[in-house]
Amino acid sequence: MAKNSKNKSKDENQESITEEEVTTAKLDEEVVDNTETVTDENDSDLDNSQSALTAERNKYLRLAAEYDNYRKRSAKEREMTYSDARTDTIGKLLPVYDNLERALKMECTDESFYKGIDMIMTQLTEVFDNMGVKEIPAVGQPFDPNLHNAVMTIEDPNLGENTVAEEYQKGFTLGDRVIRFSTVVVANSK
After folding, report:
1. What is the distance in angstroms between the CA of the first residue and the CA of the last residue of the chain?
2. What's the CA gap between 142 and 123, in Å, rounded?
3. How many Cα atoms occupy the beta-carbon half-sphere of 84 within 13 Å?
4. Whole-prediction pTM
5. How far apart are CA 153 and CA 188, in angstroms?
6. What is the DSSP secondary structure assignment for residue 161, as one 8-state letter?
7. Is residue 160 helix, strand or coil?
8. I want to staple 183 with a disulfide (CB 3.0 to 4.6 A). Which of 84, 152, 153, 169 is the partner?
9. Where are the domains of the chain?
10. Under CATH, which number does the domain 133-190 receive?
C-alpha cells in the first residue's frame, strides 16, 4: 500500500503539475492577449499622434507661407507707395522747371537776374539727376507713343517718317516709369 500511496501521490503531483501548467498556459495566453490589446491601443495612439503631428505641421507650414506672402506683399506695397510719392512730388515740380526754362529763353537786360535764374535751373536739374529723373529725348527721334504725346503732324521732306520734328513740352521718366509724356509735333505720319 505504501507503494500505492506513493503512486497516488505521484499521480496527484502530475495532475497538479498539469493543472499548474494549464493555469500558467492560460495566464500566458491572457498576457499575450493583453499585450496584443495594449499593442493595438499603442498603435492606435501612435497613429493618432502621428496624424495630429502631421496636421499641426501642415498648419505651421501654411502659416509660415502666409506670413512670407504677407511680408513680400507689404514690402512691394511700401515700395510702390514710395515710388508713387516720388513720382507725384516730381510731377508737381515740373511746372517750376517749365517756367524756369521759359525764363531762360527770354531776353534779359539784367545780367545778375539772368545768372540767378540759371543757377536755380542748374540746381533743379541736379536734384532731378540725383533722384534718377531723366528727360525723354524727342526732337529727331522716332515717334514712340509710350513716351511722346503727338498734338500735331506736319509734312517735312527733310525728316524721316514718324519722326519728332518739334517739342512743345519736355517729358520725363523716373526709372522706367513715365512721369510726363513729351508733347511733340510729328513729321510725315501716315
Report:
1. 142
2. 30
3. 6
4. 0.59
5. 7
6. T
7. coil
8. 169
9. 133-190
10. 2.30.22.10
